[in-house]
Amino acid sequence: MKKASLSLISKLNRQRFRGISPLLSRDYISVNSPSSSSPSPLHSRDHRIQFCAKTPGLVYPCRNLGTLVEKPNQLPSRQRKLKEKSDLEEAFESAKTSEEMLRAFRDMEACFDERELGLASLKIGLKLDQEGEDPEKALSFADKALKALDQDGKPSILVAMALQLVGSVNYSLKRFNDSLGYLNRANKLLGRLEEERVASVEDIRPVMHAVQLELGNVKTAMGRREEALGNLKKALEIKEITLEKDCKELGVAYRDLAEAYASVLNFKEALPFGLKALEIHRKELGNNSVEVAHDRRILGVIYTGMEEHEKALEQNELSQKILKSWGLSSELLRSEIDAANMQIALGKYDEAINTLKGIVQQTDKDSENRALVFISMGKALCNQERFADSKRCLEIACGILDKKETVSPIEVAEAYSEISMQYETMNEFEIAISLLKRSLALLEKQPQEQHSEGSVSARIGWLLLLKGEVPQAIPYLESAAEILKESFGSKHFGVGYIYNNLGAAYLELDRPQSAAQMFAVAKDIMDVSLGPHHVDSIETCQNLSKAYSAMGSYPLAIEFQRRVVDAWEGHGASAEDELREAQHILEELKTKARGTSTNQFPTKALPLPQHSLASRNSHPNVSFNQNSAGSMR
């Protein structure tokens, strides 16, 4: 997109930048003319001639133009100056590299004022941003461009481009809040330009695409992934309008959006975009292209998230064939590890172990890939209940990862989280919590990993609940809820599970009112994200009934328990046991209501059933599913 920006600025240069010298000339010559038009906006408002000290032979008096009496022999000097300016502009426009552009710019600084250099500053800033080697220098030119081009406060496509550039460079410097501010200004300005038809749609679209794409990147980096999807989708819509129907670049854009949806665990929305990318790349590049291999990799991730593991494995195998034919050994190795994990998901543990034994021979002794192989091996052995062997594999992996924390903090944090799950399965909660805390410490330093930070915090809170350390669990759960609301949106099912566990924690601490508030929030989220008849939505409603019962609010408790009964009835014969239990609880509540005044509160909270802490899938699904998508990074 930065190339597109440079292309647009070149177009604008042809329209406007070449007009600098004529404007200067007309302004200078016509000042004393009774019929002179208003001075050019590229000139300073006091109409004084500027010195050109760095240009030999061109020294101009600093007198008011209105009182200047010109002599005939001064004309050639002015013409020489105008020609020199024209030559400097030509030299700048013909420059190809950033070094050549900077040299030409330094020469121009002697003869042009700050405002006149706005376009040149913008072009250099775009070039430096595209190269990405010196963002601080790029920012200095971006600031110069914005200051020069935005002096009169009038909306223009150039001001929008300058704002986009400042936002882009701040993103490169990880100054995300600053970046977001400039990009939002650019977005608002472009909307105004389009509405008022100040600029052509053809000029607006490439800048709008750059702004939307950058907004998506910045919000993703800030952990606001759900919000970022809206911007990324708008960027894709612009590409759909401007690019040819089946071009490679459009296919990549579809794949990127599929990956973005998968990163927030919305695999259903991700799938059609992934399939569209595959369709385009197969048609344009053939079945054996690297782009097709990448499309199949992301489809494997999506199908894994949808728990369609056979389809995931099929995509993985097809991707491996392509990677092997191109000799891409590093990508092939990761693909083989993914295949082993898919075999584990399908319960093919022996096959997975044999696959991993073959892969480990291809890895270096202290490499991250070797650690990943041992993590997967530990997972397969854990599923076979060969716990001692599993622990040995996981210890080897931890030994490797310990040396990689400063080099690859995000990858190591993900690996610690994955290892902790295996220890959790083996009921080694202390080790699992210790690993998660190490993961959390690494992620807290990575603002773009806010969603992972929230997921890890949720799992720590969950494990502390299982250990009975309820007061210690609550801060982790509260923190996770706030982080994941910002990352995934307030109605994401993962946020609902956290509020459900918070409710259970408050109920355990004899705080039924707080518990009821948390369960009510959880129910509202799950009804929207999962539907009111999903088993987890039903059990959250059951928990809400328990909380009202603990408060002595039996009419409310009965109302929600009736909803539980109705929901289980809708499941038919598959939920007969759950229905009988729900009906039994309803009758108990009716009995209590008949014998108790509605104003009478129990002196002790009702005991919390074991399953209320972890409804069937509330064992932190957001963390587990997030890990499934981890290979997309």
Task: Kindly report the average pLDDT value.
Answer: 83
Q: Oligomeric status of the shown chains?
A: single chain
> Class of the domain at 1-7 and 84-242, according to the CATH hierarchy?
Mainly Alpha
Q: Count every beta strand, where a strand is a DSSP E run of 2 or more residues.
A: 0
Pfam family, one: TPR_12
Protein name: Protein KINESIN LIGHT CHAIN-RELATED 1
Keywords: TPR repeat
Organism: Gossypium hirsutum (Upland cotton)
List the helices and strands and how they pair.
Blueprint (H helix, E strand, L loop, with lengths): L1 H14 L4 H11 L44 H20 L3 H12 L8 H14 L3 H15 L7 H16 L3 H21 L4 H21 L3 H18 L5 H16 L3 H19 L4 H16 L3 H17 L3 H17 L3 H12 L7 H16 L3 H16 L6 H17 L3 H15 L6 H17 L3 H19 L4 H16 L3 H18 L5 H17 L2 H16 L6 H20 L25 H8 L5
Helix pairs in contact: 1-5, 1-9, 3-4, 4-5, 5-6, 5-7, 6-7, 7-8, 7-9, 8-9, 9-10, 10-11, 11-12, 11-13, 12-13, 13-14, 14-15, 15-16, 15-17, 16-17, 17-18, 17-19, 18-19, 19-20, 20-21, 21-22, 22-23, 23-24, 23-25, 24-25, 25-26, 26-27
Detailed description of the structure:
The protein is an all-alpha fold. It has a domain at 1-7 and 84-242: Tetratricopeptide repeat domain (Serine Threonine Protein Phosphatase 5, Tetratricopeptide repeat). 72% of the residues lie in helices and 0% in strands. It contains 28 helices and no strands. The protein has helices at 2-15, 20-30, 75-94, 98-109, 118-131, 135-149, 157-172, 176-196, 201-221, 225-242, 248-263, 267-285, 290-305, 309-325, 329-345, 349-360, 368-383, 387-402, 409-425, 429-443, 450-466, 470-488, 493-508, 512-529, 535-551, 554-569, 576-595, 621-628. Helix 13 runs antiparallel to helix 14 (309-325) and helix 14 (309-325) packs antiparallel against helix 15 (329-345). It is globular, with a radius of gyration of 32 Å. The two termini are 21 Å apart. Mean pLDDT is 83; it is low at 14-72 and 598-633.
